[in-house]
Amino acid sequence: MRQSRQVIYSMMVSLDGYIEADSVDIGWSIPDAELRQHFNEMEQDIDTHLYGRRLFEIMAAYWPNADSNPHASTDEVEYARK
User: What's the whole-model pTM score?
Assistant: First the structure.
């Protein structure tokens, strides 16, 4: 018997409900160490991500090589490897 997979919808928005600034900047959403650790723990059970085109382009530009960035924090390296 196959076990059903879960779909988890997650979205970061500002308190007033926006995803990006007027300048299409999402820099406000960069997580601190505590939130990054939360994401790392959440990643243990995630095997697929679905992004919109623009967020995918942002993620794909940074994360594939983030674990080799000498300035990356330990939790960034952990996330990049996951």
Answer: 0.66
